[in-house]
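Side project, low priority. Logging it here so it doesn't get lost.
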Amino acid sequence: MKRPTLFALVIAGLLVPPICAHDFWIEPSSLEPASGSRVSIRLRVGEDFAGDPVPRVGERIERFAVVGPQGESTVVGAEGRDPAGYAHMGGEGTYLVVYRSNRARVELEAPKFEEYLRLEGLERISELRKKRGQSGKPSREVYSRNVKSLLVVGGAATPGFDKVLGLPLELVPEKNPYGMTSKDPLPVRLLFRGKPLAGALVVAIPRSNPKGGALRQRSDSEGRVRFSLPPNDVWLVKAVHMIEAPQDAPNADWESFWASLTFRGPR
C-alpha cells in the first residue's frame, strides 16, 4: 500500500470528527483462533459494522494489548501499517484484545453537533445546551476510543470474559457469549470510570444484518442492558458517553468516550 493512502486512512480513522465516522472497533483475523496461533489485529472505523482500515499510529496509542490466562502482553506492530498489530495466542482460554487511544480534538458546527448527539443517544447534552442558550453554538470537543474484542482459544467457554480492564468507558459481558445459546439474553454492563453508567444508549449490531437487525437499549440503574441475540452471528456492541470538558482539556467544551466490544454470538 502506498504511503499517501496510509496517511489518508489515518486521517479518516483517527483525526476526523466522530459525526463523520461513528464507530471504531477491533476486528481480529479470527475470533476463535487455534492454540499457539498468530492473530492479526485490525482496527476499523465506519458505520453499520462496515469500516475502513485504521493503520497503527503510535502517538495515538495509550494501551494496545491482549489479556489472557497468562496475563497481559503488548500487541506489537509496524507503524503506519494495517493490520495495526499482531497477537500470539497461548493455550486454551479466553482472551481480550484491548485498545485505548489518547484524546483527539474536533470542532463541529451546531447543526452537525446536534445531529451527532441525537444519533448517539446524548439528548441530555442537547438539553443542557438548550437550557444554556447554546443550541446554535459550534462545539469544541475532545474524544477517545476504548475498544475490546473477546476471543476464545480451544472452543471452550472459560473464565475471563468478564474481566474489567479499567478503561474510562467499558463494556463488560456478564455471560460468556461463546458458551451461550440464543435462548438466554446476554447481560452487558457499561462502566464509566469503574462505576455503572445509567441511562446510556447501548447498541448491538449484527454483522449479517447491521441496519435491520441492530438492537438498542438504555442502560438501567446498574449500568446493565440485556440483549436477546439471534444465533450464529458476529456482534459489535457500542456506547458513547459525554461529559463537560475537564480543566486538563483546555479550549474544549465537552469530552466524549467511545466504547465498543466485538465477539461471536450464541450458537
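Brief comment: The first strand starts at residue 23 and ends at 28.
Revisit when time allows.
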